[in-house]
Amino acid sequence: MSLPRCLTQDFFSQVADSISKSGDQFFQDVHESSTAIKVLCIQQSCVAENKYLVEVLDGSVPVQYKHTCLALVPPTADGDKQLVGKVISFNQYKITPTKSRYLIILTRIVILPGDYRHLTCHLGPALVYNPGFSIEPKPSNPPTAVVPSTHVDPAGPKRPSDDFAAPLKKSTGPYGAAAAPQPSKPIVKAPETGCPTPIRISDLTLYSPKWLIRARVSYKSQIKKFSNQWGEGQMFTIDLCDANGEIRATLFGEAVTKWYNFIEEGQVYSISGGQLKPANKKFNTLRHSCEISLDENCQIQLYQNDHSIPAICCNIIPLKDLDKVEVGSVVDVVGIVARVKDTKQIQSKGSGSSTEKRDILLCDQSATPTWLTLWGAKSQMFPGRELENNPLICFKGVKVNEWQGKKLDTTPSTKITLDPVIAEAAEVRRWWSTTGCNMSFDGGRTTAETNIEELFPVRHILNAANQALQFKSLGDSGITFTTRAMVEVIKESTFSWPACSECHRKMSNDTGYWCCTRCQSKNHPRHTYILTMKITDATGHLWASAMSGVAEEIMNKVPAGELISLLEGGELNADGKNFMNVFEEARLSEYIFKIKVTSEKYMDEVRLKYRVMKAMRLSRNMDLAISLRIRSIKEIE
């Protein structure tokens, strides 16, 4: 595993050795280093203002252990609080013992430039804590009789820092005491004097020993039935928000039966007694690093409506910034509906099931119109001509996709709010009433044309793809790059495949007659391009595939069926060109390519696949425009 070379090697091993050899004086001293110590952050959790509990790696190889530290991060000018994937540099630290292991407190911190999140996204689950930092539990004294008392311990509650590095243990009751008998119905009460003080959702961490939150349910899912090796089960999820953040909670089994009808979307509840665990980002798209697991023994009380808690908690991004967001990410947007299309029925090729979709064009003050697709029941949320009156809508939790440029799609958990009462919506409304209503929005963005300055050399694409494959960070959606390169070679041996004109599946010709094995159609196939070509620039080359319309564009718009006829008949087409002439003309042409990198498993070997998603041929005028634009950017820098 290749980590950044700047990381300090064997730092934590040396600290562990010092802990085992030194006495209590080692924990009392503040240690300083003459040279900066550099570690890589792979997880973070905010515990207080400018204080973060982080899991880090040093430069030790092989990579086996992660280490828990408390980082005292000074505020930055831009307010950026993202530490994951960043290299943390410090030259002062202190060791403090906690309940289960030693905690390292980092001070005099500098966050170095660079982003290594592609290395960290799969590292955490595979690593364990260094046993050299563990604290062996002391043998307990023989139990003695305890006299019941109602007096409060004068020592006060245990310090939260004692549990920073100890995993939260599941207790039988909400605050560590024995669970009280559960009533037949959920508890419903107004706030009482003397109740535990709620904490902010943003302050919840894996090391919060006892907590109570007061939050609004911003989303409630349907009950999902499932079956696994332990039998059948059921679950549902809720998203909780307060004035400072949001977090997801999941309920399983008996908790579903007890709480599902009691919890209502939009209501405020006091919740305690759940178990905090790391958020599973495969299913949880909220920004919080933790999620809550609630069971039938947790405490959920309906609270009187607290107007300080917003109805929705959004992290709105301008539509123009979608170009910087990776495909597959989930974002929150707000905008005016500038155009709307009719509802359509879409049939899935795989399952054969049908669903409804409706496309709307969103715009905001950034004047970057973007298409958004409403799927399923959400396409029927606005009956009649309501969408044609340019309503202001907030979409929380829409997925970023790419189809002829960046676009957005709703998901089952997307929350749609008409005329939201948030600051970003007020700005959009003000822009529309003064400027936007007089503008013309004919269509959405085209990424390849608006971002032609973000070009990567072929060598960079190869290195980044290999690094992503090594650290298993490609994901299901892959990575997309834009590059300027030339088509050097196109293979003539296999350039098309016979597609059924009815169901678009591959047809066979085993008996001398074309036949589709799926729909039994015997019509003549519609030949479709599947090119394999070598793409080259000054830094290197790669082999990529191109399909259908993109390949036809590269082949100078000569249909694949016509090329098959030229190959079989050995004749000339209307332009006087034979089979080889068509390929020769397609070679040595320069394009702006949008290339998607994915991985596949073949013969137990994982390998990379490069596919051309879009190809824009360069003309002399465009070539000059690109050069001038790049030159102007460099002058600004």
From TrEMBL:
Zinc listed as a keyword: yes
Chief location category: nucleus
Subcellular location: Nucleus
Keyword tags: DNA replication, DNA-binding, Metal-binding, Nucleus, Zinc, Zinc-finger
Domain called Replication factor A C-terminal: residue spans: 481-619
Domain OB: 231-282
Region entry Disordered, spans: 139-167, 172-191
GO biological process, one term: DNA recombination
InterPro entries registered for this protein in UniProt: Euk_RPA1_DBD_C, NA-bd_OB-fold, NA-bd_OB_tRNA, Rep_factor-A_C, REPA_OB_2, Rfa1
Domain of life per record: Eukaryota
Residue intervals of the Replication protein A OB domain: 319-418
GO cellular component, one term: nucleus
Pfam family, one: Rep_fac-A_C
MF-aspect GO terms: DNA binding; zinc ion binding
Protein family membership: Belongs to the replication factor A protein 1 family.
Protein name as it appears in the record: Replication protein A subunit
